[in-house]
Amino acid sequence: MPINLLFSIDNHYLQQLKTTLWSIYLNTNAQQHYRVFVLQQPRLLYDQELAVFCQQLQMDYYPLVIEDSNFWAQAPVSKRYPLTIYFRLLAQRYLPADLQRILYLDADILCINDFTKLYNLNFQDNLYAAAIHSGLTDITTVFNKVRLDTYESDGYYNSGVLLMNLPLIREQVKAQDIFQTIKNNGKFFLLPDQDILNALYGKHILTIPDEIYNYDTRKKIIYETTSGGQFNLPWVIKNTAFLHFCGKDKPWQASYKGNFRELYLHYQHQMHNLMKSALA
């Protein structure tokens, strides 16, 4: 069975998406078939380059071009939070109707181990499966629950790795609810798409371990400390599936001083070499 992957990017994130896909190709079963769905508005300038790259990896590429841009006019955007961040919230609007599940990934993620177990997870009647990042203080947790009125949820979920139960989402996730939430509470949002996900659907999300499936690279010391040293670097290299380079600072930027930069640049370099060979 194919694994369905979902991304939502603009032209600024094409190379990062290719790096993510390359890392998936290298660190999962070589016989696994992937279908790559990419939400985009407008169509990516280098759409053909992405198609060629996916072909090199023996992945099927499906561009999902958002034509109804007026539909999203109510969504607040900024330089840091472009319109593309919202598309995952109503991905079912654009995906093929026969898809049962899909794994959404941010394009600032590296895959360093197999994630098949996550993809085949039993949803237990939940809409999504996602991780709550470790290291949040009790004060931060309470603040988010008060701010978003999510007292019944386990915590504040990160939307960068989001396994979607599409049949149930088609039934229960409605555009009018999302836009009404933006209208009522948008001025209080800190991370817009993530705040909407938590505010509306937080109690319908199955919690997955972030140290395995959504490791926040900014919090390496926190992971090690709170686990009593268990989640050290050797453990991460052996067990973690997804490294997530959260926040404003990114490893492809010259100014980045955070963790795992060398690892990211290694995968990025390999990706560029593969493209050179494909174009030669």
Automatic annotation (TrEMBL):
Keyword check for rRNA processing: no
Record keywords: Glycosyltransferase, Metal-binding, Transferase
Gene Ontology molecular function: glycosyltransferase activity; metal ion binding
InterPro entries linked to this entry: Glyco_trans_8, Glycosyltrans_8_dom-fam, Nucleotide-diphossugar_trans
Protein name as annotated: Putative glycosyltransferase
